[in-house]
Automatic annotation (TrEMBL):
Transmembrane region(s): 21-46, 80-98, 110-128, 134-156, 163-185, 205-227, 254-282, 320-341
InterPro entries, per the entry: ABC_BtuC-like, ABC_transptr_permease_BtuC
Membership in a protein family: Belongs to the binding-protein-dependent transport system permease family. FecCD subfamily.
Membrane topology of this protein: Multi-pass membrane protein
Subcellular location field: Cell membrane
Pfam families assigned to the protein according to its UniProt record, in alphabetical order: FecCD
Primary location recorded for the protein, binned into one broad class: membrane
Entries under CDD domains matching the protein: TM_ABC_iron-siderophores_like
Protein name per the record: FecCD family ABC transporter permease
Sorted UniProt keywords: Cell membrane, Membrane, Transmembrane, Transmembrane helix, Transport
Naturally occurring in which organism (per UniProt): Sporosarcina contaminans
Amino acid sequence: MIRPINFGRRYVRLRPLNLRIDVKSLIVTAIIVFLTIAVALFALMAGTMQLSVQEVFSALFGQATGMTHTVVVEWRLPRILSAIIFGAGLAISGAIFQSITRNPLGSPDIIGFTSGSYTGALVAMLVAGSTTYIGVAAGALTGGFTTAIIIYLFAFRKGTQGFRLIIVGIAISAMLGSLNSMLLLKSDAEVALTAAAWGVGSLNGISFEQAILPMIVVILLLIAAWIMNRTMREMQLGEDAAKSHGVRMEKDQVLLIVIAVALTAAPTAVMGPISFVALVAPQIAIRLTKSTESLFPTAAMGAFLLLGADVTAQRIVTGNIFPVGVVTLSVGGVYLIWLLFHQARTTR
């Protein structure tokens, strides 16, 4: 029997599922999950109406009534679960694009898919005149997938190379940014203000009625991405190596892009475009685990980052109206500058 080469990493094997899990990745994931739960508990307790741990758990288990139940279950819990699930989805979307492009800049907000979703939502609000949740969500989903098709067609030439995909995506994103500005300037001030506020990205006022279907979609897409995890790892080795290992490059790339775009479009349809979570989370997870084998640390990191950013925006910065997108944009912008500087130094 040929045993796999051990490069100094420890693994545990789940025999019923025939899974091999890296011990370090498992420990890092467990720590991130614990921190996420701690932040979620703090978010349930903190706010204008301060609650104790006992009151929070009473509300969660259906033993509380009145205002306590309303605040915990109807107001705070949808926001927290949305941040966790959508943050995980955005992070995995970034991991997929970074695997396809083999570049840490491969991210839906850098390549332009987030801008496409925003453009679709603006067309729905400002051109079609639809301000309902379903109309805006449909516009965001349509815009995201349309942008993905355009970028893929322009980037395709005897295969899809990662660098070409990034360059084309950045160009399309710049064009969409100009189109978005034009749509806002030509619209009525009141409607344009609402659309611009949505475009910052926010979890304010989110409810289970709005978020439940996108959350289910994201969970199903996360399962699909986990099934494709081996293919993603093979793609990071390069096209020739991946093909030699049985990867159908074009078909698998298209399938992964569809999954990644949907993982971006579904959250964007609910909370607006959230920048840099997809860019930052996979890279932090890789640096913590020193491994690209598992998506679990990446998903956990995305959930922690978006929830932490939302708690920071709501509880520390201004109280109740500050959009989470401003926090992620500020922190992510600093990270992007560092990443570009680091890339420039390593290529000298």
